[in-house]
Amino acid sequence: MFMTPLSNSEIDAYNARGGAQADAADPQAAQDRFLKLFIAQLSNQDPLNPLDNAQLTSQMAQINTVTGIQQVNQTLMSLAYQFNLAQGVQGTALVGRQVVAQGNALAVESGTAQGSFSLSQPADSVRVDIMSTTGEVLDTVDLGPRSAGMHNFEWAIGEIDPARIGGMQINATSAGQSVPAVPLSRQRVESVAMVDGILRMRTSGGMTLSYPQILAFL
User: Fold this and answer.
1) Distance from C-alpha of 52 to C-alpha of 140, rounded to nearest angstrom
2) For 105, which of 169, 185, 186, 194 could close a Cys bridge (C-beta 3.0–4.6 Å)?
3) Using CA atoms, how far apart are residues 151 and 44, in angstroms rounded to an integer?
4) What is the rounded distance in angstroms from the CA atom of residue 46 to the CA atom of residue 173?
């Protein structure tokens, strides 16, 4: 019997099925299946209406395109895996390092509380109120004038129970006018892990941070 040439819609449907299974399909196997179908079509074509060179070239180009896309996808997946692996290995170097992120928590180590803050403009007076977990002021640190940008500070906790330290409030002024100040939390990285392809850091303060959330490494 004779077979009619494959239409563009039939070829597109074949390509669509192959594309939907690209993750699990072997590109070489997909090409072999197409070539078998293609040879069967040539063997059974109507001798009175054979395929012309343009049709043959078009069909071969389409299967080569599908195979090429599948191979590119596999290459990209391999690169993504290697990148995630390298990122995870590099992330282990962050364990033990301090990071700065949004928040007003203080990092307490060896009798000293450490914090950071950011000023939108220079201030001629900056004071940091150390707050308790119940909202009372435990102490005030006078830092004097500070330029715009991020700043770090330390406070000796003395006889205060570290469990009572709740956070901080930044009070900055310039010529008697309030200057916007953003408190920043300094945390020490205790562990790192890849979660859904993203490197996440677990800190001593119980925070889980990703790279975009880190403002600085200390």
Assistant:
1) 88
2) 185
3) 79
4) 90
Write out pLDDT tens, residues 47-75: 656 666 666 667 667 766 766 777 777 77
Task: Give the closest residue to 186 by CA, choosing from 162, 153, 212.
Answer: 153
How many degrees, rounded to 5, is the angle at CA 123 between CA 117 and CA 126? 55
Which CATH number does 95-217 carry? 2.60.40
Stated pTM of the model:
0.58
Sketch the domain layout of the chain as residue ranges: 8-92, 95-217
Q: How far is CA 133 from the centre of its chain?
A: 33
Place of tokens 């900056």: 126
